[in-house]
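Z., the sequence and structure:
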Amino acid sequence: MRALFLLTLPLFLFSSTLHLSLGANPSRINPLLATDSASGEISGWIFNGLVKFDKDAKIVGDLAESWRFITPTKLIFNLRRDVKWHDGEPFTAEDVRFTFSLLRSPKIFTPYASDFRYVESVKAVDKYRVEVVYKEPYFKALSIWMMGILPSHLWRDVEDPMTSDLNRKAIGTGPYRLKSIASSGDVILEANDDYFEHRPHIDSIHYHFMPDPTTQFLMLKSKKLDIGSLTPLQREKQLDRAFEDYYRIVQMPGRGYTYLGFNLKLSKFSDIRVRKALDLAIDKDELIRILFFSHGKVCYGPFMPGTFAYPNELQKGEYDPNMARKLLSDAGYDDTNPL
C-alpha cells in the first residue's frame, strides 16, 4: 500500500525567509556521514555530487558538466570550471579524489562506502578531469557519484573525521550556506550568492526544530510555517475554513509503503499458493479507506509509481476471499489443518 501525504503552501508569495520544520537535530552535516533524515536534508542544501536526478528521475550533471565511458570499466568526468566552495576556494578534481580516499579510509565509518566497493581507483587527471576505474562493469557506476563532495583543502589535515568540528560547520558548494545550527534547536541556511547555477530566489531557510508532529501541526495552524505535511486524519477531520483559505493544499504520492514480508525458509511460505492466498484474502482498498481516509493506493512493488522501475504490466490480484480459501485448500490447509 502506498499512503499519500499532503503538502501545504501559502497562497501568497514567500517572504525572503522560508520557514520549515525539522523533526530531529542533524547529527553530522557531512554527506559521507549523514545517515539520518535530518542530516541528509540539511546536507542536500549545502553539498553537491558530480551528478544528480532531474525531475524525471534521469541522471544529469551537477558538479560534472559531462562524462563518458572510455571502456565498460573506465569513466571520465569533466568537471564544471565555475564552482567555488563557500569559503571562496575553487572546486577541482582533487576534491573528488580526496572525498573518495576519505570514504575508503579506516578513519571513517559510513554505510555509503559499500556503494563504492567496485571502484578500483579515482585519479585527478588534471584540474578539471577525474578518471574512475571500476573492478568490473557496475550498474551503479554513475549514480554513486550523487554522493556529496567534500573540500580537500579543509579536510585533508583532519585527524578524526568522525568528531571534527567541520561536521557542524559545513562548507560546501551548494545553493545554501550554513549560517547557524543549535544543539536541539533551529538550523538557519542563507543563500549562496556565488552558486554556479544561479543565486537562490529565497534568501534564507529557517528550520524550526520540532520533534513532535503535533507541534508541527499547531505551528501550521498558527501560520508560522510555510510548508508542512498533513496526515489523512488531519486533512479530513481537523482543518477549518481559515486554514484552507490561507494554505494551498496539494496531494502528492508519499515515499513510503507498508508490506508483508514472508520467510521463504518456512515451508508454508515457500508454497506460492499460500502467498497468493494471503494476498487475495486482504482487502487492501478497505484498509486504505479506513486507515488513510482513501488518501492512498495499492502499490505493486517497492518502486515509485510513475518511474521506469515500476512494474505497470504486473498481473494484479484483486480481493477474492473465495479464491484464497481454494488456494489454501489446494495447499493442504483447512479447518483441521489451519495455516
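The mean pLDDT is 91. The radius of gyration is 24 Å.

Let me know what you think.
H.
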